[in-house]
Amino acid sequence: MNRVIEVENLSKRYGDTVAVDGLSFTVRPGRVTGFLGPNGAGKSTTMRMILGLDHPSGGQVRIEGGSYRQLREPLRRVGALLEAGAVHPRRSAYAHLLWLAQSNRIPKARVRAVLALTGLDGVARKRAGGFSLGMTQRLGIAAALLGDPPVLLLDEPVNGLDPEGILWIRNLMNALAGEGRTVLVSSHLMGETALTAQHLVVIGRGRLLADTTVREFIQANSRSYVRIRTPEPELMRDALAAAGLSVKQAADGALEVDEAGPEAVGEVVAANGLTVHEVSVQSASLEEAFMRLTRDAVDYRAAGR
Ligand SMILES: Nc1ncnc2c1ncn2[C@@H]1O[C@H](COP(=O)(O)OP(=O)(O)OP(=O)(O)O)[C@@H](O)[C@H]1O
After folding, report:
1. Considering only 40-49, 77-86, 89-98, 266-275, which range has the smallest mean pLDDT?
2. Residue with CA nearest ligand 1 atom 14
3. Distance set, CA 203 to CA 45, 136, 291 (Å)
4. Pocket residues for ligand 1 (CB within 6 Å)?
5. Nearest to residue 159, comparing CAs of 177, 178, 186, 131?
6. What distance in Å separates the CA atoms of residue 35 and residue 115, rounded to the nearest whole number?
7. Pocket of ligand 1, candidates 12, 14, 18, 205: which has the most ligand atoms within 8 Å of its Cβ, to mutate?
8. Distance CA 35, CA 33 (A)
């Protein structure tokens, strides 16, 4: 089995709304792929189509070479977390998972295994209706892992979780990818995804904006510069310019030097006997880069009409 998800020229229209628009990308095993886009970009719609829950208006999706509907014993091939709240509130976590296992010919021992893996052992007999958001999220992940699937799709799994829950999911996803599984996880948070994923697929208004490694995305999008505060800005500016460095003045009067490290700046300072109050390396945030990339592609409703 190749464990690959192939999305090919996929489109979905709802009346006049084009939710997904000619989208193509491939999700590979052994790494966490972050599926990023602002609200309304089409992430959930794409994931539903991957899972055969929604019918494409055009294009196709292949999982391990075929469609989801063609998979025999799908829960053993693909695990998904879509709506974590979709549990009968009066059922216990154990009963919920047991019912899922029995209706999919999954051995009962897997129920205990996923309860332990998701840290729900202690509350397994409690009614799921009384669960906190974090526990509900863990139960959804337990259900996704029940069939020990090589392919996992998680839609916004960290939404509403506290830092401990976020860290737990991050570690779990990396462990699952480390076992050679294919892990696709959607989010609208660039910073969080950059910490978790190794590969990124970014969409806006249903279209592909970037398909790249996290490392390349960071290199391409994080402007880093040296910031200098000095009581002698004119002299400093002249000295830096004479050394061939490009200098800009920030709103607070500090100087900013692009495309040079602190070493080059320090040498100019020393050679000219200038006084400095601060020399620091600054980086623009990834979240800013993500917003720049998706700005023109933000869903018009989400943009506040
Ligand atoms: N069943 C539906 N009927 C009509 N329009 C829909 C339906 N589902 C989604 N849409 C529209 O399709 C577009 C994409 O929605 P989708 O939920 O896939 O985006 P998303 O990236 O998952 O956003 P979010 O982060 O807000 O969940 C939106 O404009 C949405 O309003």
Report:
1. 77-86
2. 42
3. 12, 28, 12
4. 14, 17, 19, 37, 39-45, 188, 299
5. 186
6. 27
7. 14
8. 6
Q: How far is CA 94 from the centre of its chain?
A: 30
- Structural domains in the chain, CATH included, are 5-212 (3.40.50.300), 223-283 (3.30.70.980)
> How far is Cα 31 from Cα 207, in angstroms, rounded to an integer?
23
* pTM: predicted TM-score of the whole model, two decimal places: 0.82
User: Residue with the nearest Cα to atom 28 of ligand 1?
Assistant: 40
What ipTM was estimated for this complex? 0.95
Atom 8 in ligand 1: residue holding the nearest Cα:
45
Q: What is the pLDDT of residues 227-282, one digit of tens each?
A: 999 999 999 999 999 999 999 999 999 999 987 889 999 999 999 999 999 999 88
Give the distance (Å) from ligand 1 centre to CA of residue 261: 44
